[in-house]
């Protein structure tokens, strides 16, 4: 079967609503459509939009058009039609993001932290920070004898020195000595 006959069969299956033909058509032309979107997408929009979203929008629009409204005699004719649809969709988003004051991308400003850097700190530690802190805590605990580890655990739980002395059954000066020793290890 020649290329034009295979294309005619694919289009006929598409017009008939054959899911296999529709899927084949989408798979065959999706890379070209995605390339067309990428060529036309403004660099400042590339960080905000995925080209696959545009491709899916084009396919949704294309499949919604009644099949009797268009005919494609060649693969090039179909490709030209799909490219035009992609162009129109990209232009529509470009106008929305650059042409209206409400969504104007040129008015957007980056967020920076108080120290002026572009790194914004989360209000809670990250998972890796928690793991590192736990490893450091285990390392520090290992430097103390088993009897003093209870004092460290109570300290970590936020108890006052007086409460720790009472709960651990040791003097306040013992708690203070353990805390000083802990500070020496962390300094």
Topology:
Blueprint: H1 3-15, H2 19-40, H3 43-46, H4 51-64, H5 75-99, H6 127-141, H7 146-156, H8 161-168, H9 172-186
Helix pairs in contact: 1-2, 2-4, 2-5, 4-5, 7-8, 8-9
Family: Belongs to the sigma-70 factor family. ECF subfamily.
Protein name: Helix-turn-helix domain-containing protein
Domain RNA polymerase sigma-70 ECF-like HTH: 6-178
- Largest sheet composition: none
Euclidean distance between termini CA atoms: 79 Å
Q: Estimate the mean pLDDT confidence.
A: 82
Query: Count the helices. How many?
Result: 9
Structural class: mainly alpha
Write down the domain tally.
2
Please indicate the percent range of residues in DSSP E strands (runs of 2 or more): under 5%
Please, what is the CATH homologous superfamily of the largest domain?
A: RNA polymerase sigma factor, region 2, helix turn helix motif
Give the CATH class of the largest domain: Mainly Alpha
Structure description:
With 187 residues, the protein is an all-alpha fold. It folds into 2 domains: 3-107, Rna Polymerase Sigma Factor, Chain: A; 127-186, Arc Repressor Mutant, subunit A. It is 68% helix and 0% strand. It contains 9 helices and no strands. α2 packs across α4, α4 packs across α5 (75-99) and α8 packs across α9. The longest helix is centred in the middle third of the chain and has 25 residues, at 75-99. The chain is elongated and about 95 Å long. The N and C termini lie far apart (79 Å). It comes from Gemmata palustris. InterPro entries: HTH_Sigma70_ECF-like (IPR053812), RNA_pol_sigma-70-like (IPR039425), RNA_pol_sigma_r2 (IPR013325), RNA_pol_sigma_r3/r4-like (IPR013324), WH-like_DNA-bd_sf (IPR036388). Residues 6-178 form the RNA polymerase sigma-70 ECF-like HTH domain. Keywords: DNA-binding, Sigma factor, Transcription, Transcription regulation. Belongs to the sigma-70 factor family. ECF subfamily.
């Amino acid at each position: 079967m020649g290329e034009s006959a295979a294309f005619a069969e694919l289009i006929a299956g598409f017009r008939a609503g054959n899911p296999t033909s529709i899927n084949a058509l989408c798979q065959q032309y999706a890379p070209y459509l995605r390339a067309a979107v990428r060529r036309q997408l403004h660099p400042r929009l590339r960080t905000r939009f995925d080209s696959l979203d545009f491709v899916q929008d084009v396919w949704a629009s294309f499949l919604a058009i009644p099949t009797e409204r268009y005919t494609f005699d060649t693969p090039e004719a179909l490709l030209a039609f799909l490219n035009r649809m992609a162009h129109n969709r990209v232009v529509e988003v470009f106008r929305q993001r650059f042409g209206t004051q409400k969504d104007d991308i040129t008015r957007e400003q980056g967020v920076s932290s108080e120290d002026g850097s572009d790194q914004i700190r989360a209000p809670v530690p990250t998972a890796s920070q928690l793991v590192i802190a736990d490893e450091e805590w285990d390392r520090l605990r290992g430097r103390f004898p088993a009897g003093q580890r209870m004092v460290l655990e109570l300290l970590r739980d936020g108890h006052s020195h007086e409460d720790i002395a009472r709960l651990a059954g040791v003097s306040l000066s013992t708690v203070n000595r353990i805390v000083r020793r802990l500070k020496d290890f962390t300094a």
